[in-house]
């Protein structure tokens, strides 16, 4: 077996796969305001294994490595791992009081002597400790909650099949934690983590075109959200399931499910409710019912304006401004108002980094749909083709293909050279 560097040993200790390390690297780059992408797999392995590194990492990469592994310089991280013996941990427990000792302390007189009260207090303290005992620390729970956000942040830059592989491993780890004893507050947090990760599994699976399996994951997530007592999260999962119907089923089914989710949420302000209202409007627009869709878009804008900063910043379970603008533009597109759509689409596109690929591609296809509807098929086909060809092959997943096929059905004019070329692109 290859000898590990300190870096490789730390990866092993923290159970950091290449995918997880890349997500952590990306988060650190944003925190440090550094314009650098994660290392390629070959470079990652050079850092990990003794004898493969020829030169030290560049300054920015070194800064991030030292940020991710505090107390270690870059040079130290790339040295052979030290073989430190595991620390021995002494653990003592106080034995429960013997029956004879308790009887002697209680005595026969009225009231309770101080010795008996001391025994009772010790017994109660042990019971409290047992009820509060947990094999998972608060820090571990914090880490799992942050992992869910890391996956959501990575969704725009990494292929869904890569994220899904790592996510399934993490879900297995959380399942093992869930099967152990925890105090109620810890179990609720764990269930919330399960719901978040299940939601992401559904999103990634939907992106790959497996809509039935995606719905099953959203159902699992809802079960976990119910146990966590998180109504907003339960509603978010219901809306996410409705979005699958919007992309892979029928607008009517999506509208019904989104309306039901909003009723479940009792129209309370929050990201799930705002997302449900926008989805209802998008579905109605696709169904050719503009007089019902427009008031809902106004309601959605009002709801979005009341979301907290925390909700707008939460990529995983909130509703970011760029997502909202993307969905608003989609609704205006299908209402046959390309100018209104393009106004918000430009704002949405400006909010994505060059390395974020999926949503911008879908926004450009929406732009192409608007142009096709307004009588500019040649330009529409060119824009849609550019959106697809600029995506790396691993990002051209089921959802992108479905989106592109829906555009082609609206654009028509397949006799045009651009139409024939686009059809060939989809077949390839």
Largest sheet: none
Task: Catalogue the unreliable spans.
Answer: 84-95
Mean pLDDT reading: 84
Structural class assignment:
mainly alpha
What is the first-to-last residue Cα distance? 42 Å
Number of strands: 0
Total helical segments: 22
Strand content: under 5%
- Give helix % range: 55-70%
Radius of gyration: 27 Å
Shape: globular
Order of H and E elements: HHHHHHHHHHHHHHHHHHHHHH
SSE blueprint:
Blueprint: H1 6-13, H2 18-31, H3 41-48, H4 59-68, H5 74-77, H6 99-106, H7 114-132, H8 138-154, H9 160-178, H10 184-207, H11 211-228, H12 231-248, H13 251-264, H14 271-286, H15 290-305, H16 309-313, H17 321-334, H18 338-350, H19 358-373, H20 377-389, H21 398-411, H22 417-427
Account of the 3D structure:
- By secondary structure, the protein is mostly helical.
- The protein is 70% helix and 0% strand.
- It has 22 helices and no strands.
- It has helices at residues 6-13, 18-31, 41-48, 59-68, 74-77, 99-106, 114-132, 138-154, 160-178, 184-207, 211-228, 231-248, 251-264, 271-286, 290-305, 309-313, 321-334, 338-350, 358-373, 377-389, 398-411, 417-427.
- Helix 20 runs parallel beside helix 22 (417-427).
- The radius of gyration is 27 Å and the shape is globular.
- It starts with 5 loop residues before the first helix and ends with a helix.
Features:
428 residues, mainly alpha, 22 helices, 70% helix, 0% strand, globular
Summarize this structure briefly.
This protein is mainly alpha-helical and 428 residues long.
């Amino acid at each position: 077996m290859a000898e590990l560097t300190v870096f490789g040993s730390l990866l092993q200790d923290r159970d950091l796969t290449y995918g997880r390390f890349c997500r952590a690297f990306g988060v650190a780059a944003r925190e440090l305001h550094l314009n650098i992408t994660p290392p390629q797999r070959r470079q990652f392995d050079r850092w990990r294994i003794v004898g493969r590194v020829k030169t030290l990492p560049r300054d920015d990469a070194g800064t991030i490595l030292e940020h991710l592994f505090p107390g270690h310089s870059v040079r130290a991280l790339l040295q052979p791992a030290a073989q430190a013996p595991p620390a021995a941990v002494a653990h003592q427990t106080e034995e429960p009081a013997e029956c004879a000792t308790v009887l002697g302390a209680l005595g026969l007189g009225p009231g309770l002597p101080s010795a008996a009260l001391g025994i009772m207090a010790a017994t109660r303290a042990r019971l409290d400790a047992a009820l509060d005992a947990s094999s998972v620390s608060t820090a571990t729970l914090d880490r799992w909650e942050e992992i869910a956000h890391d996956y959501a942040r990575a969704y725009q830059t990494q292929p869904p099949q890569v994220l899904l592989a790592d996510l399934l491993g993490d879900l297995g780890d959380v399942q093992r934690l869930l099967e152990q004893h925890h105090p109620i507050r810890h179990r609720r947090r764990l269930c919330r983590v399960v719901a978040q990760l299940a939601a992401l599994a559904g999103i990634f699976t939907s992106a790959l075109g497996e809509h039935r399996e995606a719905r099953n994951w959203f159902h699992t997530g809802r079960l976990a959200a119910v146990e966590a007592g998180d109504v907003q999260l339960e509603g978010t999962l219901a809306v996410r399931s409705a979005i699958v119907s919007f992309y892979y089923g029928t607008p009517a089914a999506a509208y019904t499910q989104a309306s039901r989710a909003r009723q479940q949420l009792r129209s309370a302000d929050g990201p799930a409710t705002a997302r449900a209202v926008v989805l209802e409007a998008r579905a109605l627009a696709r169904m050719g019912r503009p007089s019902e869709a427009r008031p809902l878009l106004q309601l959605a804008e009002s709801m979005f304006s009341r979301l907290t900063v925390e909700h707008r910043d939460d990529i995983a379970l909130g509703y970011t401004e760029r997502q909202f603008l993307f969905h608003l533009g989609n609704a205006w597109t299908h209402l046959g108002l390309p100018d209104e759509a393009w106004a918000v689409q430009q704002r949405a596109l400006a909010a994505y980094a060059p390395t974020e690929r999926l949503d911008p591609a879908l926004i450009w296809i929406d732009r192409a749909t608007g142009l096709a509807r307004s009588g500019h098929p040649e330009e529409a086909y060119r824009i849609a083709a550019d959106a697809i060809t600029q995506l790396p092959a691993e990002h051209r997943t089921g959802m992108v293909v479905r989106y592109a096929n829906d555009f082609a059905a609206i654009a028509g004019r397949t006799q045009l050279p651009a139409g024939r070329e686009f059809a060939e692109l989809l077949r390839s």
